[in-house]
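User: I'm preparing a small set of examples for a lab meeting where we compare how different chains pack in three dimensions. I only have the primary sequence for this one, and I'd like the structure in token form so I can line it up with the others. Please keep the answer compact; I'll paste it straight into my notes.
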Amino acid sequence: MKKKDKLETVEADAVVMKESMEKEHLSRQERQAQYKLLMDTALLAGQIMLKSGAETYRVEDTICRILQTSGLETAETFATVTGLFVTLADPSIDAITQIARVSEKQSNLSQVYDVNDISRSLCGGKITVQEAYDRLLVIKKKQEYPLHMVYIGIVMTSSFFTLLLGGGVLASCLSALNGLCIVLCRHITGKVKLNNFITDMLSSFIIAVGTMFYAHMIHNSAIVEITIVGSIMPLVPGVAITNAIRDTLQGDYLSGGSRAIEAFVIAACIAVGIGVGLAFSTVVIGGSML
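Assistant: Understood. Below is the structure token output for the 290-residue chain.
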């Protein structure tokens, strides 16, 4: 009888231990899921910022601040111009590491501001991780400006920069026509998925040929230089140059150097396009290059 009671006690203890282990395992899984959501939130924030033209040091800082809300021992990130490497680790959980490639780029400082605002709210305890993730998804899917507004902006940039640089009304109108050519070129190359560098080169070539044609038609070669300079302003890599300098000053030489090379190649493509366009126009239309 005593042996039977002892056996029942052992079995009862085993059941209690099993239930305790299952609860502990479930609790660990729940914590792992929460930290996975935090990792996804931080990674999504970094992707949006990097895609929108933010500096890499700012991207790293934002991701680290979001991950540090977990209170875990290790929260590290490494950002390059084209990718993110993020790790969250602690003895109490299984380490989480994710890598994301960012190939699409644009200049959208509004989205950078919105992501920073969500990051501050999350770190300040004003919103939950799930709320932050949902708001980031909305930002990712949101189109800031319709495509036709972007195209109008390109035309206006070419036209008004020509006026700003000292060109007259005639040169400004011709630059607006060149802006339309840029829009048309981008639309076509976007359909066939051409490289951005090739797109800039083709746009510059069309600008040079178009300007030489306008000058030949109105018999006024004096407008060629100012019209070309004003027309290429939408193509100039201003954000890339600025970010290259800021990343370098922050000690991020890899990203700074990459952005500097990117800006140099864009500038070189514009110069080659203009040069080839002027040479082509001189041969076909006649007259001097400038």
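A couple of notes for your slides: The chain is about 70% helix and 5% strand. Confidence is low (pLDDT under 50) at residues 6-23.

User: Perfect, thanks.
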